[in-house]
TrEMBL record:
Localization annotation: Cell membrane
UniProt KW keywords: Cell membrane, Membrane, Transmembrane, Transmembrane helix
Protein's UniProt keywords contain Cell cycle: no
Residue spans crossing the bilayer: 12-31, 43-63, 93-117, 124-144, 164-184, 214-234, 270-291
Record membrane topology: Multi-pass membrane protein
Main localization, broad class: membrane
Lineage summary: Bacteria, Bacillati, Bacillota, Clostridia, Eubacteriales
Name this protein carries in UniProt: ABC transporter permease
Database matches in Pfam families: BPD_transp_2
Keyword Repeat attached: no
InterPro entries: ABC_transp_permease
Naturally occurring in which organism (per UniProt): Ruminococcus gauvreauii
Length: 317
């Protein structure tokens, strides 16, 4: 009976708590500040949501696979600078180039983890922090530490602020990415391999699954998603700053944890991460509208991250 009650509580947390939190936070913000429903604010909310969401869905694959990636913050900054330089020179082709660059950088991070013999998230923590430092340095070196202004074209305006059938283009691209990754993780053998490696790497190896291939796939996808998020943000704001990716790794991990993905690996969902990003984005927007100090916002994010990790640990009891 006691175990059944714990199971019921766990199912409630998994299925309803996140969605309930989003609804309660949204309603509270609307009551406290009706300007939240302003169409301009809602549109800005969507366009703020998408870059972080791209990073977070990639991070979901890595954490399900039993690892963690702190390098995305530095990679986001570097990709933003590189994207502006490529776009100014190559036009629309720069989108493909920046996706390729992000994928290669993610693969490089994975290869370094494999060479160093990293076997879990604890091992990956410091190695990917080192990669973050390297990417941050490269972001500063690419243009001498200066911001790069994007030469706006119809293509970049369409991606950054355009609509298709009344739907923001950035949101359409994100929905496509979510559908593809959700299908990959739930319906394809590669998705099951990622879950198995994260949950039981020994069993995965006995089944003929090489953890190194899973690491390479997860980090490569995350690199490409991070690059795409940086490119879309650049198209919206028009300027690339060498430190634009600051705190992206924290916010992405926060969104993934809130979405119910286990930090110990083997369990998680891309769709739930989307809900996690929604909660983080709405919370940040609400705190800004309510005039909460930026430092206090960081405190709240830290508290929520600790709470999410505590809930994750309780699920295993």
């Amino acid at each position: 009976m006691k175990r059944e009650k714990k199971q019921i509580l766990g199912n409630f947390i998994n299925d309803y708590l996140l969605l309930t939190g989003i609804i309660i936070l949204t309603l509270y913000t609307i009551i406290a500040e009706p300007a939240f429903l302003n169409p301009g604010n809602l549109l800005n909310l969507i366009r703020t949501f998408v870059p972080l969401a791209f990073v977070s869905i990639g991070m979901t694959l890595i954490i399900i696979g039993g690892y963690i990636d702190l390098s995305v913050a530095g990679l986001f900054s570097m990709m933003s600078i590189l994207a502006s330089m490529l776009s100014n020179r190559f036009g629309p082709v720069s989108l493909l180039l920046i996706l390729l660059a992000g994928l290669i950088c993610g693969a490089v991070s994975a290869l370094i983890l494999i060479i160093c013999g990293a076997r879990n998230s604890s091992d990956a923590l410091f190695i990917t922090f080192g990669m973050q430092t390297a990417f941050n340095a490269l972001a500063l070196l690419l243009n001498g530490g200066l911001a790069v202004t994007l030469e706006q074209t119809p293509f970049t305006r369409f991606l950054g602020a355009g609509n298709f059938l009344g739907i923001p283009m950035v949101l359409i691209l994100f929905i496509i990415a979510v559908v593809v990754l959700q299908f990959l993780m739930k319906k394809m053998p590669v998705g099951r391999a990622v879950h198995l490696v994260g949950g039981n790497p020994t069993a995965a190896e006995l089944c003929g699954i090489k953890p190194s291939k899973v690491i390479l796939l997860s980090f490569s996808v995350t690199g490409a998603m991070t690059a795409l998020g940086a490119y879309l943000l650049l198209c919206r704001v028009g300027t690339a700053i060498p430190t634009v990716g600051k705190n992206y790794e924290t916010n992405a991990i926060l969104a993934v944890c809130i979405g119910g993905t286990s930090l110990s690996g083997g369990k998680g969902s891309v769709l739930n991460t989307v809900l996690g990003v929604m909660l983080v984005t709405i919370m940040s927007n609400a705190l800004n509208i309510l005039g909460i100090d930026a430092n206090m916002q960081s405190v709240w994010k830290g508290v929520i991250l600790i709470l999410a990790i505590w809930i994750d640990s309780r699920r295993k009891v």
